[in-house]
Write a structure and sequence with these properties.
Layout (H helix, E strand, L loop, with lengths): L1 H6 L12 E2 L2 H11 L6 E5 L5 H7 L4 E6 L5 H7 L6 E5 L14 E6 L5 H11 L2 E9 H8 L9 H9 E10 L4 E2 L6 E8 L7 H10 L7 H7 L4 H10 L13 H13 L2
Parallel strand pairs: 2-3, 2-5, 3-4, 5-6
Antiparallel strand pairs: 1-8, 6-9, 7-9
Helix pairs in contact: 5-7
Length: about 270
């Protein structure tokens, strides 16, 4: 892979969050965790050198791979030669129209660190995917699968829980699996999407408001957000919550009930 980059006069570009995955065992574990089958349509973001793309193409019916870095396109043309089931697009994944994908598609990727979170939220809200399996920084992975009361639990944990039926860390990946090695450990995360989940902007807004200042109580954060004190106090009492409770102690179901109570008060 190093000689391939040198031949094209390229190197990993930090502005694109590039760390190329080159460990064959990790690549196989990602594709296995995604349960890619002969009729699968896979959406890949940031193919880089195409190592994961080749693995996906060997199992899937079709791979749609988007790459923002124009400099990588000649490399990908070389590594993906002969893989006719790969559609390589030079575009920004955050701007890509996910409705071009069929329902039940898979997202499988070594996600660029700088766009991982917004891209995952977009993918979950789109309703197009059955499963998402991807590499992210370990601390991001921990936030994605955290439960109420966990140290890593936050607004992202709740938003992901809203759209998934199951979520787990498949494995951790040491820096040496990448070229160049990042300064952090990564994690392979699998999210199984709940097909009945629908976007709920009001709930998302309330979750972000509840976590706005982690050292503050939920009540204080809601007051900062503009909710009236009587409404907040009544809602907390209705839920049987201590006025001193913090957002990180509350599961998704409580936030959903809290939203309904606050909506009823106007």
């Amino acid at each position: 892979m190093r000689s391939l980059l040198e031949r094209h006069g390229l190197r990993a570009d930090k502005s694109f969050g590039q760390n190329f995955l080159v460990d064959a065992a990790v690549l196989t574990s990602i594709v296995d965790a995604a349960e890619v089958e002969a009729d699968s349509v896979v959406f890949e973001v940031g193919p880089g050198l195409g190592t994961l793309t080749v693995e996906l193409a060997s199992r899937a019916a079709r791979v749609v791979s988007v790459e923002l870095d124009a400099g990588m396109l000649p490399v990908l043309a070389e590594t993906l030669a002969g893989h006719d089931n790969v559609e390589l697009l030079h575009t920004d994944a955050l701007a890509f129209d996910l409705t071009r994908l069929p329902h039940g598609a898979l997202l499988v990727a070594n996600l660029p660190y700088n766009v991982a979170t917004p891209l995952l939220v977009k993918a979950l809200e789109s309703g197009r995917f059955a499963r998402l399996v991807f590499l992210v920084q370990r601390e991001v992975g921990e936030r994605l699968v955290a439960r109420a009361g966990d140290e890593a639990y936050g607004s992202l944990s709740l938003i992901v829980e809203r759209f998934t039926s199951a979520r787990r860390v498949v494995r951790h990946v040491a820096p040496g699996a990448f070229m160049p090695p990042p300064k952090v450990t990564s994690s392979v995360v699998r999210l199984d999407v709940d097909p009945t989940a629908r976007p709920d902007p009001d709930l998302v807004r309330l979750v972000h408001q509840g976590f706005a200042h982690r050292r503050k109580t939920l009540k204080r954060n809601l007051l900062y957000a503009g909710y009236g004190e009587p409404a907040v106090e009544n809602a907390l009492a209705e839920l049987g919550l201590d006025p001193r409770v913090r957002a990180e102690a509350l599961p998704l179901a409580v936030f959903e009930r809290l939203r309904a109570l606050l909506e009823d008060t106007g």
